[in-house]
Amino acid sequence: MPTTALFVLAAKWVGIATAVCAVVTVLSWVLKWGIRFRLVGVTSFMVILTAGLFTLSIAAVPQIKIPGAVPFSLVYDNGAAQTAIAVPPEITEPQLEATLRQAAYDLFSPGRGSSTSTQLTIRARTIIHPEENVSKPLYLGYVKRSLRDREDDNMEIFIDSEKLASLPKLSLR
Fold first, then answer.
1. Could you say which of 45, 61, 85, 118 is the most buried, measured as most Cβ atoms within 10 Å of its Cβ?
2. Cβ-count burial of 129 within 10 angstroms (0-12 exposed, 13-18 middle, 19+ buried)?
3. In whole angstroms, how far apart are CA 102 and each of 30, 37, 98?
4. Which residues have CB under 8 Å from 104's CB, separation 6+?
5. Strand order in the sheet with 136-146
6. How far apart are CA 91 and CA 74, in angstroms?
7. What integer pLDDT is reported at residue 150 of this predicted model?
8. 47 contacts 41 by C-beta, under 8 angstroms
9. In the Cβ-directed half-sphere of 123, how many Cα atoms lie within 13 Å?
10. What span, in angstroms and rounded, lies between the C-alpha atoms of 21 and 172?
């Protein structure tokens, strides 16, 4: 996975190549080479590429992995302050807490905005089948985190132990 250090290294080398390209372009104008207009285009592209890599070296954020989190899928996201994730029905309470924390880190984005709330709420649900051909969503808990602060140490995690206990137990055969 690309890291900040890798983007810094790439920006450095592409920046050096851009400087060399710029020198060749100036030389082509002084010597009136026929390809001087093409070299202007190549140099311009190199400048844009260098700027992009430099920006990625500043903005790249490492992925945080929470131990014990199980895979989840995003089932609803309004792009502002409300999301819902689906978790497997065999989930345990420690796994659910870790998964809610993982979702809180994964779904944070500085581009989320809400005029009515300062917190992102992520609800975890699973699907149970109380009868044949009947599916029912069961909300197991939620996490509330800041919409503004990436490193939110005050996340509010709620797990509905009663609903979690009502999940069918996985039989070992």
1. 85
2. exposed
3. 58, 51, 6
4. 120, 122, 143, 145, 152, 155
5. 73-77, 82-86, 119-128, 136-146, 156-159
6. 16
7. 77
8. no
9. 15
10. 66
pLDDT of residue 171: 44
Please report the beta strands in 109-155, taking only residues with DSSP state E, as ranges in sequence order: 119-128, 136-146
Per-residue pLDDT of the chain (173 residues; tens, 9 = 90+): 567 788 889 999 999 999 999 999 999 999 999 999 999 999 999 999 999 998 888 776 667 888 999 999 999 988 788 999 999 998 999 999 999 999 998 888 877 776 677 889 999 999 988 888 998 899 999 999 988 877 788 899 999 999 988 887 754 44
9: left (phi over 0), alpha (psi -120 to 50) or beta: alpha
Helical spans, DSSP H, in 31-165: 36-59, 93-106, 161-165
* Paired residues of 125 in beta bridges: 86, 139
The DSSP 8-state label assigned to residue 90 in this structure reads: T
Q: Look at residue 1 in the predicted model and tell me its pLDDT.
A: 57
Q: Which two tokens stand for residue 22?
A: 């710029």
- Cβ count near 76 (within 10 Å): 12
| Spatial separation of the C-alpha atoms in residues 72 and 153, rounded to whole Å | 22
Place of tokens 């055969």: 173
